[in-house]
User: What shape does this take?
Amino acid sequence: MEDGALSKPAAVLACAAMASFFVGILYAPTLILRLRPPSSHTNFLIRRFICAGVSSLVSVVVSALLLPIKSGEASVLLGVYGIRTDHIWQALVFPLSLTALMYAGSLTFMSLLLIHSLREDMNCSGGLSFDYIKSISLDAAASLRSISSSVMHWRNYVVAPVTEELVFRACMIPLLLCAGFQKNTVIFLCPIFFSLAHLNHLMDVYIKQQNNWTKACMIIGLQLGYTVVFGSYASFLFIQTGHFIAPVVAHMFCNIMGLPVLVSPGKGIISVAFIAGVLGFLWLLFPITNSGLYNDRTDNCRCWQGYCSGN
Assistant: This one.
C-alpha cells in the first residue's frame, strides 16, 4: 500500500464509526453534547436538528482528514463531496424525474382524488367561477404556509434528507472508493451502514406494538429492506452523477410520497400506471444517469480515485 493511502479496513471502520455517531448523538444528546432535556416536542425536534448538524460536520471533517487528497484546494474537496454548481439543473431534474416514475401509481391515485374533489367542490359552488378559483388558491396558499411552518415537515423533508445523504453518501462513498472498493461493492456496502442506522427505531416500534417483538421485528425488517433498496439507489445516483444534490432530491421526494401505491380497489388504472412507471424506470435508469450528462467525465469513480492519487 502506498504511503498515506487509505486501507479497506480503515475505510469500513470509519464508515461504521460515522453511522454509530450519527445514531448515538441523536439518541444521547444529553450525554454527548450536554444539551438540556427538551421542554416540548418542537424543542425536541430542534435539538435533533442541532445533533444531526453536528454529526454531519464531524463526518465531513473526519472523512476530509482520512482521505489521502493531494490537492488542498477548496473546490477539489467540495468536489469530492459532490458539492458542485456545474450541470446543476441536470442533477436536479433528471434524478427527480427518474424517481417519480417509481411513484407513477401514487401520482395517478393522487390525481384521481384531486379531480374527484375538484368536481365535488365545483358542483357545490355552482361551477367554475372567479370566486371558486380564488378560494382554491387561498386554500393552497394556506396549506403551503402550514407545511413551511411545521417543524416536523422540515425534519422529514429537508433536515433528514440533507444530513443523511451528506453522512451516508457524500462522506462514506469517497472513503470506500479511495480505499479501492469497486463501484458495485460500494453501491451495496454503503446502504448497510444506512440501514443499520435505522435500527434505533426498534424500541419505538416495540412499544407502539404493545411489546410484541414479532410484530416489531417484522416492521423493522420491512423498513430495513426498504432502506437498503433506497440506499443502493441513492448511492448509485451519487456515484453516477457526481452530484450531492441528486440523491438529496430523490430522498426528499421519497419522504414526501412515502411507500409507492401499487394497487387500489376498483381502480385498475393505478396498477397499470405503477407497472408502466417501473418499466419506464428500468428503461431510463442507465441512460438518464450516464455520467456524461452531469460532467465532462465518463467515469466518476476514477475521478474520486484520481483525487486521492493526485492524478
Observations:
- The radius of gyration is 22 Å.
- Residues 138 and 144 are 10 Å apart (CA to CA).
- The chain is about 75% helix and 0% strand.
